[in-house]
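Before the break, one more example. Copy the sequence into your notebook; we will annotate it together after we see the structure.
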Amino acid sequence: MHDRPTVLIVEDEQRLRELLCDVLPNMGYEPVAARTAEQAFTFISQQSPDIVVLDLNLPVMDGMTFLDRFRQSHPDTPVVIMTGFGDLKSARQAIHHDVVDFLAKPCHLGEIEAALGRARQRLTDPRMDLEEQAASAVDEMIDDEDQIETIAEAERRMIYAALERTNGNRSAAANQLGISRRTLYNKLAEYEKSSV
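Here is what the structure looks like once it is written out:
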């Protein structure tokens, strides 16, 4: 590992990708960004990253599929998961892939910095059982029904706020949220059913 670990950011949302590339050097990391899993694999074929920050909601190949394939050749590289929607099933799956942390977007830069700090600790001391820490964090998330409800509410608020910002333009709102139009339509249909 170098003094400034290389962090591969696999994130399709341009604003977040650019933000992370701007702030990570101040945190002591060397960021490299990929918009898709395919771009990430192109980078990985040339240089192994020290840490990966991975969005689960990616176009073409989703984040969990990327993680499955990545783990085959890089079983020990610390991975931090970030996703726009609090998906508990994905959180459970991610634990099996020995991830350092699972962050639900939108998250504060302080949370990202703390997660990267834990990933960096694992690089310097691989004996640390951070998998257990991450598993207990997900267990708390699963056990706390209020927290689950809060994630669902946050998701709903984000969607309605994007629709408000775009004056009801669903294509523009989906684009802002970094999700497909189909996903947005499905979520809105879910909300309509639950309010009947």
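Strands lie at 6-10, 30-34, 51-55, 79-83, 101-104. The chain has nine helices and five strands. Try to locate both features in your own notes.
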